[in-house]
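Database export, one record per block. Field names are fixed; values are copied verbatim from the stored entry.
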Amino acid sequence: MQRDARAGRAPARTITILLMGLLLVAALAAGAFALLGAGVRGAPPENLDEAELLRRISVAPENAPDFRATVTVEQTLVPEGLISASEGDGPGASGPRSARIWYGGPEKLRAELQGENGDRVVVKNGPEVSIYDGASNTVRTGEGPESGSPSPEEAASPEEINELLAEISPTSVLRTGPPVEVAGRWAYPLTLEPRDAGSTLVERAEALVDAETYLPLSFELYAEDSPQPVARYEASDFEVGAVPERRFEFETPPGAEVIAAGPEGAPNREDREGRPEEPRVVGSVDEAREAAGFPVRGLAEPIGGRELREIRVAGDAAVLTYGEGWGTVVLAEKPADGDAAAPEASDGDGGADGPGGFEVPTVDLGGGIEAREISTPVGSTLSWSADGVSYSLSGSVPAAELRDAARGLLAG
């Protein structure tokens, strides 16, 4: 079993996640292009291979036209009660969530998220960002990062696209096909799926990419043995065109408390302790212990024989990566806050209090240690504290396999 991490380039998992993230973000921003028109306009566009389609997609999000739309999100990944409780809606809230979006370029965005216990409004106008929480009637203000030059982005070079395809090829299959009709527009189908279906709970991700703008018209994520997507975006009331400037001018609601963000550049804990902010790769668990300043531990029996591929240390935290691609398992560790060895239990059995009183399921790891467990159709997360260290173990694997690995770590 390999104990030392292999230094060098980022694993293909990183590139795969970036590609999926691109599809997700673009779908949220412009999925409603599919709703334009009642019939297909013009002859079918030319066929494109995967490399050329990726090249055109690479510039689409930054070069998107101004638009407005209503976006509805449906998902079964994160328990609805946990989302609702964290947003102040109460554990009973569930169902699709909608947001009204106005986009005026990289520096101008307004999103109004509708909730059962009050809406949330996010406005970015240049460097100024305002976030309103209707549940608490508070406004948080501050400055966001600059988006850079407003000039159009250049497409990725053929060499960069070929490198990306080479990175994901060992673990993933990317396919496109001839253009298809989608609600009056031509679109290219794009599918990304794991090469080894047994290494992950994800079956595939699908997108339809607009043949004119190269923005995804739809995005769906499927779990194994699930005929319906576990996450998808839909949009309506979509209009392309200039958005009035007043949409990006935030008005503080009457009686709202305004909370200004702290001074930019305030030192964080890593700065104060003299540790580097940027994560750095180390070659072994022993080296991670020395760099992080606490007893970093690796998995005694990595899940499914996954090798330790990389260890990164940032300040007093360490992240160990096992395997690659879709089946990657990540173990994150840092010194625990306080001396608690188990999550605080709720009044009922088998749960711990989470945000807003939502009961997060707990499991017994032995030795008086309990862990919070969140299991979804495409992956699971287990978190616990022991001997002054907090652990988080995540991966696209069944929750039972994470529990076995955690128990092995504690027994080692």
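Remark 1: The chain has two domains: 12-260, 275-411.
Remark 2: The helical segments are 12-30, 50-57, 80-86, 158-168, 269-272, 285-292, 399-411.
End of record.
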